[in-house]
């Protein structure tokens, strides 16, 4: 079979439909040997996007090429959409998932974590106040015990 990154059966049928995951799916390194040994760049991009990958990860530039990897991937993806090998709807699905993730991370999630951090800070301050009070009570009790012992000795 194909690597999971290129497998529609794993990404769409299992991950999305059976498990119900609706988030952004990142690829493994698209330059990993399990892909580059058997698939061209164009074929691997076609399989990954049609399989359900939303964001493809590449480890570096294309060996032996003067073209930047980002430019090559963009032009390859654009050509695959223009030829109909990848539907514009499929690209739009990824776009919507990515934008939803960005919105969640940019606003709501950040505020949630800030509020959580504030709650934890307040809780830590409350515990610190209790700890200081307990330490003072212990010190006072120890001092009171010393005074009682001194008083007994002097009697």
Summarize the structure in words.
Helix content is 70%, strand content 5%. It is mainly alpha-helical and 155 residues long. It has a two-stranded parallel ribbon. α1 (8-18) runs parallel beside α3 (41-51) and α3 crosses α4. The protein is elongated, with a radius of gyration of 30 Å. The chain starts with 7 loop residues before the first helix and ends with a helix. The mean pLDDT is 87.
Helicity level, as a percent range? 55-70%
pLDDT averaged over residues: 87
State the strand order across the main sheet: 1-2
- What is the ordering of alpha helices and beta strands? HEHHEHH
What does the radius of gyration come to?
A: 30 Å
Number of strands: 2
Strand % is: under 5%
Query: What spatial form do the alpha-carbon principal axes imply?
Result: elongated
**Unreliable segments of 5+ consecutive residues:** none
Largest sheet geometry: 2 strands, parallel
Counted by DSSP, the helix tally is 5
**Termini, distance in Å?**
93 Å
Classification by helices and strands: mainly alpha
